[in-house]
Amino acid sequence: MRIAIDYTAAIRQGAGIGAYVRSLVSALLHQDQNNQYTLLTSGRPTAQRPFPQGEHVRGKATLIPDRYLNILWYRWRIPLLPATLFTGPTDIYHGPDFALPPLSRRTRTVVTIHDLAFLEHPEYAVPSLAAYLQKVVADSVQRADVITTVSHEVSRTLIKHFQAPAEKLATIPAGVAPYFRRETNPMLLAATRHKFSLKHPLLLAVGTLEPRKNHLGLIKAYHHLLQQKKAPAMLAIAGGKGWLYEETQKLVSELKLEKHVRFLGRVSDLELIHLYSMADIFAFPSYFEGFGIPPLEAMACGAPVITSNTSSLPEVVGDAALLVDPHSVEEIAHAIDRLLQDEQLRQELRTKGYQHVKHYTWEHSARKLLSLYERLAQGETNFADKDFGI
Q: What average pLDDT does this structure show over 184-208?
């Protein structure tokens, strides 16, 4: 087979969808040496995020900036400029970032939808991005031969909003990189603790500073516990600045929590492993997630997890985490206090977490995707997950 994959997100985005595409494609190329892959990007790759290497893979940059390709492909939908003009003859084209460009009629198509937050919770989405996704997702869902999602919850919302046929839906979950494992070396942990001036007990959160991640609710819960003298010594938040990040930093100032709350910014994977490993509690009270990798990474490193009882998160964490209503500051605070006071419960969640995260590997996801490509090439039309209930 000749398989083309839009690799733009993998080049342009450090985390989120970019990390998903890089990890999934890397595992796919490692497993499959028989088929030919073309990785297409708008703009050139970088030294930090190059094209993968291999005899069965080639990188192809259009050299047309994203802005103009978006206009040509997704606003004007110019059929005279199909993506296959750049990739060459292609049996299967996979758009792993919500969108499908114009393509040759002979090309079978796969599109990946990561979440529908722009429809379910438009208040948490950047307006310009929401407007773009409303258009391209509707078009891609209609045109795709197969729609892959990162969770069954996303599949259900696709049926709800777009009447997507169940037989076109297949779940390809994210995985956890194998190097996310608990670090116990006291010197390494001490170095990271010193770098970020952290104290114990430590409450850790990971995620871009934006409204959807609900850092405001977590900070309010922490402040509530601090007033009752039940709070962990410190709350550390690792993640870059996103949409409306100023509100989060402003709240810390208003509540006079500067000595107790640390904004760590973007951290390396190695630092993240150390942070997960030293955290007494990991909290991820996001309002909405299509999947949610940080709770699984935290489990792999032995951190007891608190997360939301909404969207896909219960599906992703199973019974290996405490679930809370993200809209309830009191519930978040109670869960933090409960874990902080109960060492047996923390150990129980660690044990469950270690076992649960074994189900999420990029190798497993890549095998499922390769099987999907093969079935699509053979003319199969029903891709519904056997364990998917509607």
A: 97
CA distances from 124 to 143, 185, 213, 266, 292 (A): 27, 39, 9, 21, 16
Residue 169, beta-bridge partner list: 147
Is domain 2-175+361-377 given the CATH code 3.40.50.300 in the classification? Answer: no
| 155 within 8 A of 111, measured Cβ to Cβ | no
Can you list the positions of beta strands (E) in 174-313? 202-206, 234-238, 261-265, 281-284, 305-308
Q: pLDDT (tens digit, 9 = 90+) per residue, 355-370?
A: 999 999 999 999 999 9
Name the β-bridge partners of 148. Answer: 112, 170
Q: 163: burial class by Cβ within 10 Å (0-12, 13-18, 19+)?
A: exposed
355, containing H or E segment: helix 343-356
* pLDDT tens per residue across span 67-122: 777 777 776 666 667 898 889 999 999 999 999 999 988 899 999 999 998 888 88
pLDDT tens by residue, 329-343? 999 999 999 999 999
Q: Which residues, in sequence order, are CB contacts of 29 under 8 Å at separation 6+?
A: 37, 52, 54, 56, 57
| CA–CA gap between residue 378 and residue 372 (Å, rounded) | 10
| Chosen CATH of 186-359 out of 3.40.50.2000, 3.40.50.980, 3.15.10.40, 3.40.1370.10 | 3.40.50.2000
Alpha carbon distance 55, 340 (integer Å): 52
**Which is nearest to 202 in space by CA: 128, 301, 105?**
301
Query: Is this prediction's pTM over 0.90?
Result: yes
Query: What percent of the chain shows pLDDT beyond 90?
Result: 81
Q: Render 155-190 in DSSP notation, one character per residue.
A: HHHHHHHH---GGGEEE------TT------HHHHH
Using only C-alpha atoms, the chain has a radius of gyration, in whole angstroms, of 22
CA 292 to CA 51: how far, in whole Å? 26
Contact status, residue 308 vs residue 212, Cβ threshold 8 Å: no
